[in-house]
Specification:
The protein is of the alpha/beta class and 244 residues long. It has seven helices and ten strands.
């Protein structure tokens, strides 16, 4: 069973800083670390801090390898809301990383084949730290409620809750939100040496309570962190911790 360390911070900026500190500590010890990265609004502050540390020469990403959690299917790679675009715009374009060392699932084309190829890539390596956000329904990556804990990289039909939550990125028009994605499976996430789960806001409070209650429920995917064999840090602001 995992030993989860809960870190409650005062606000979003402090949450971002505490997560960044863990990454910085790793890179100073292991310059060729393998990072698992997430998208969405939660890690933006984390990426800004890491960019600043890189620009001030405190850390380098030139030997770092990254693997992203997921990608939308059926929108072009260079679409403004693809996770490929997100990662370049919010992180990779601003640091000294070799983009050949960055890996994001391919959302275009045959999703089953793309999932198999990404699984093969992940099986060749070991992620040192995996960053996770959390959906309001408890999903991690795009592993929706009911996802088998033993599953690897797969394509998934997104739940209506997820589509509605993501509509804000698509001009609040749910018709424009992709209905399918490709994601690391829960098995891949659990393979990481260390996991950092970040959450802020009251809409994440129920999901965080479920994690910290030590329950393991297939209908609340994030609760699988309770059986992770490595270290798990749950870094939240006061609002996300409001039901603990």
């Amino acid at each position: 069973m995992s030993k989860i360390e809960l870190i409650i911070t005062n606000n979003y900026d402090e949450m971002s800083q505490r997560a960044a500190d863990k990454i910085i500590e790793l890179l100073l010890k292991k310059p060729n670390a393998v990072l698992g990265l997430a998208t969405g609004s939660t890690p933006i502050g984390l990426y800004k801090i890491l960019i600043e540390k890189n620009n001030s020469k405190k850390i380098s990403f030139k030997d770092v390898i990254t693997y992203n959690l997921d990608e939308y299917c059926d929108i072009p790679k260079n679409h403004e809301q693809s996770y490929f675009t997100y990662m370049n715009h919010n992180f990779f374009d601003h640091i000294d990383i070799n983009k050949n060392n960055t890996h994001i699932p391919l959302g275009e084309g045959d999703s089953k084949l793309n999932a198999e190829n990404y699984e093969n890539e992940l099986n060749k390596t070991k992620i040192d730290i995996q960053i996770l956000g959390i959906g309001s329904n408890g999903h991690i990556g795009f592993n929706e409620p009911g996802t088998d804990f033993g599953i690897g990289v797969h394509d998934v039909e997104l739940h209506n809750k997820t589509i509605n939550d993501n509509a804000r990125f698509f001009e609040n028009d749910i018709k424009k939100v992709p209905k399918k994605a490709i994601t690391m499976g829960i098995k891949n996430i659990l393979d990481a040496e260390t996991i950092i789960l970040m959450a802020n806001g009251t809409n994440k409070a129920d999901a965080i309570k479920n994690v910290m209650d030590n329950k393991v429920d297939i209908n609340i995917p994030v609760t699988v962190l309770n059986i992770h064999k490595g270290k798990v840090y749950v870094i939240v602001d006061k609002k996300a911790a409001s039901k603990l």
